[in-house]
Amino acid sequence: MKSDKSIAIILSILSAMFFSATFVGNRLISVEGGHWIWSTSLRFFWMIPILLILVGFRNNIRPVFEEIKKKPLQWIIWSSVGFGICNALLTFSVAYAPSWLVAGTWQVTIIAGMLMSPFINKTSYKETFSAKTLFFSLIILIGVCFMQINQAKNISISEILIYIVPILLSAFSYPLGNRMMMKVTDGKLNSVQRTLGMTIASLPFLILLSIYGASVGELPTENQIYQTLLVAICAGIIATVLFFMATDRVRKDEKALASVEAVQSSEVMFALIGEIVILGIALPDNYSIFGMGLIILGMALHSLKK
User: Fold this and answer.
1) What is the count of structural domains for the chain?
2) Residues 74-86 pLDDT 10s
3) Which one of 41, 258, 270, 306 has the minimum C-beta count within 10 Å?
4) Residue 74 is part of which domain span?
């Protein structure tokens, strides 16, 4: 189990590196005038043909549809929560704040996963809420608060809430959708198959979102179409598959699962580096750097604890 946890944590860190493309890519699209609705929907529309090729290459498409047919409503609900709603809220937030700040705030998802775990898997309550796990997660949460200090001094409370509330909702949506789908599939599909199934099952939500975008006169820009393809490959395919591989490997060990989710906090560093390189932003203030340090410390403690 120790080796499984170590491998899962490495996979989760690699996933975080690619997943940071969501924050940086969507921020770039937003700066260039692209609407958040199309940053969300186009990403998943691009993912479907790519995933069909990947899964079809090994003749593994049929089991995906067989599993969806067994519990279609659960697939649609939890896929829409974990993929559609989660990413719609994130892309909306990136339009109002730097990608590294959104990535840092989104690390509340670590605590969100633990808070929801007893309700999803009632037998794991004592395992999930160990004193160490909660303490290490609290360090990460304090780090997130420090990252908001300078932002709070420069903008109004209402402006802060515009991006923080959607991020917090997204932070709960992702682990909820992922954990519920792990429960629904129960290891019957591999990571790529589950990613394909959840992408397909989230289509009703994404189509409705696109129809709304078109109805209010918002259409995707040419650059946005190509940029969402890159985000789809990096964050939608590579990052998601790596993360599912990590969580599937330790799905029966709640403590290890919490650690795997915790190391996703490395996204904030990858997002910061990406925004400095691609968008040429200035280094964040001392409060934010200290907050990032706490997030990384909490992540390290999570990954090292037994």
Assistant:
1) 1
2) 999 999 999 999 9
3) 306
4) 2-304
Select, from the ranges 77-86, 236-245, 282-291, the one with the highest average predicted confidence (pLDDT).
77-86
Query: pLDDT tens, 147-206?
Result: 777 766 676 777 778 888 999 999 999 889 988 998 899 889 988 899 999 999 999 999
CB 271 within 8 A of CB 20: yes
Q: Output the CA–CA distances (angstroms, integers) from residue 182 to 42, 120, 122, 222, in the order listed.
A: 25, 10, 15, 36
pLDDT of residue 152: 66
Provide φ and ψ at 294, rounded to 5°.
-65, -40
Nearest Cα to Cα of residue 236 among 84, 101, 96? 84
What would the two tokens of residue 194 be? 């589950």
Return d(Cα 297, Cα 294) in angstroms, integer.
5
In the block, tokens 């699209």 appear at: 29
Concatenating the DSSP letter of every residue in the chain gives -HHHHHHHHHHHHHHHHHHHHHHHHHHHHHHTT--HHHHHHHHHHHHHHHHHHHHHTTT-HHHHHHHHHHSHHHHHHHHIIIIIIHHHHHHHHHTTS-HHHHHHHGGGHHHHHHHHHHHHSGGGHHHHT-HHHHHHHHHHHHHHHHHHHHHHHHS-HHHHHHHHHHHHHHHHHHHHHHHHHHHHHTTSS-HHHHHHHHHHHTHHHHHHHHHHHHHTT----HHHHHHHHHHIIIIIIIIHHHHHHHHHHTTT-HHHHHHHHHGGGGHHHHHHHHHHHHH-PPPP-HHHHHHHHHHHHHHHHHHH--
Confidence of residue 210 (pLDDT cuts 50, 70, 90): very high
Q: Give tens-digit pLDDT for 22-65.
A: 888 888 888 888 889 999 999 999 999 999 998 998 888 999 99
Q: Are residues 295 and 268 in contact, defined by beta-carbon separation less than 8 angstroms?
A: yes
